[in-house]
Write a structure and sequence with these properties.
45% of the residues lie in helices and 17% in strands. By secondary structure, the chain is an alpha/beta fold. The chain has one domain (2-126): Response regulator (Rossmann fold, 3-Layer(aba) Sandwich). Strand 4 (82-84), helix 4 (89-97) and strand 5 form a beta-alpha-beta unit. Helix 1 (11-28) packs across helix 5.
Amino acid sequence: MVKILILEDNAKAIQAITNGIQELRTELGEIETIIISRGEEAIDFASRGEVEKFDVILLDYISADNINFHQAVLDKVDSQKVITISNTIDYNRMAEEKGVSRSVQKDYFNLMNFKNKLKDEIKSILI
């Protein structure tokens, strides 16, 4: 079973992401997802070593409670499992500076395109 951690606080983006993951199930089989929207929860999750158990981590920059998701988890995981998904290019570049090589810029005006690009990046990690 594939495990995907989604660190995202925007409901529309979460919907696009989960729709894409649902579509991936036909190709990849069973996929377990955990969605974390609050930074405090991400910090707690990371401090317990839970983030290391995921095959893919979708990483936004700012949480619903204005905590930096990057600071919460990036130093706790293999950067090759991470896909940054901020709508701000600079935030994705900041993750690149910490070793993250995969990025899909979130586009609220074209969430279908975002979803499809994200599916491709998820598959590139898993296949």
